[in-house]
């Protein structure tokens, strides 16, 4: 029966497409936005990104299911003065005060808002994704939404300005917390392994401070640019490298400074256990406190 199943699969193959892992995102926050009904989108420099694409005039390529058909038509008819494309995606931003494009967002884009009650468009200048998860904020205070009228030869002069709002302060605090917690865990494990001499603890502290700062800074850079999937992969890889490096240092420096010298396997075991516990604690806290770890 098993061989027959294999024969059937070989005789009647089919194509399977898989899409896994987190995707980059662009989030636009609108401060001081009024309650007027407003739709927003990102105009793209390219004609397509992921499954989203500009309408080519064919009925079968119209992606009206993603938005209100009437709003879809209005956005399709919009003529951007810089030649940017509407990719058939829009959001009712007056409700959430946010435009969140979380699946293959455009790399270079413009922000475009449409107010149906006054048939008014308001646009921004050109911006770009600067991180895996890109954040911008737009202050709508003082923006005159009645200054641009909708017409067949539409071009907009009203500009809204966005500024980068990635929370670097929170990331630095999280980085510091991860480093301190990891060092504390590994020092506690050292005490359990009987490393209590001042020289021993000093060497352990210095080695852990250096390796953990390098490790966490690299992981922060990777997460910033490539996202959580790459972060997880390199987290495991870097932990293995740190374990091997620390094991070598402990077998040489720590063993030489110890009054009661032990076999190399003992120092290797400490390095393995300490890194395993800190690694497990990091994964656990990443699930429980994603904003901090």
Automatic annotation (TrEMBL):
Transmembrane residue ranges: 172-194, 201-222, 228-253, 265-287
The entry's keywords: Membrane, Signal, Transmembrane, Transmembrane helix
Signal peptide, first to last residue: 1-18
The protein's name in its UniProt record: Uncharacterized protein
Organism of provenance: Clostridium fessum
